[in-house]
Write a structure and sequence with these properties.
Structural class: mainly alpha
Helix content: over 70%
Mean pLDDT: 82
Number of domains: 1
Strand content: under 5%
Largest sheet: none
Number of helices: 2
Low-confidence stretches: none
Length: 111
């Protein structure tokens, strides 16, 4: 018998461009990358929104504190003005007696 010369076998592997499975896999990877990117963008957006809300809450708290400080300042002014009026209306001898009593009580408590 005569032997046939060995023929080189043709390559059965196809290039990735020709293989529909490889093309589908590449498309799915691209979609996955797009989904990851959109999720990251959504997380960043949510973080920015949360930061803005915190900033607004801090601004509101600061405004409340400023309003309270303004109210306290106004009340203190009213109290001092009222105290000034009381001092003007009170007799000097009464003021001296109260001051003297305060000195005596202070000396007794210090011992």
């Amino acid at each position: 018998m005569t032997e046939k010369p060995a023929q080189p076998q043709k390559s059965e592997t196809k290039s990735p461009k020709d293989d529909p499975m490889q093309a589908e896999l590449a498309d799915m990877r691209a979609q996955l990358d797009a989904l990851k990117a959109s999720r990251e963008a959504a997380k960043e957006s949510a973080a920015a929104t949360e930061l803005a809300k915190r900033g607004d809450a801090q601004t509101d708290e600061l405004d409340k504190v400023k309003a309270a400080a303004g109210d306290l300042s106004t009340q203190l002014k009213q109290l001092l003005e009222g105290f000034d009026e009381e001092l003007k209306d009170t007799k000097p001898t009464t003021l001296l007696a109260v001051f003297g009593a305060g000195v005596v009580v202070g000396r007794l408590l210090a011992k």
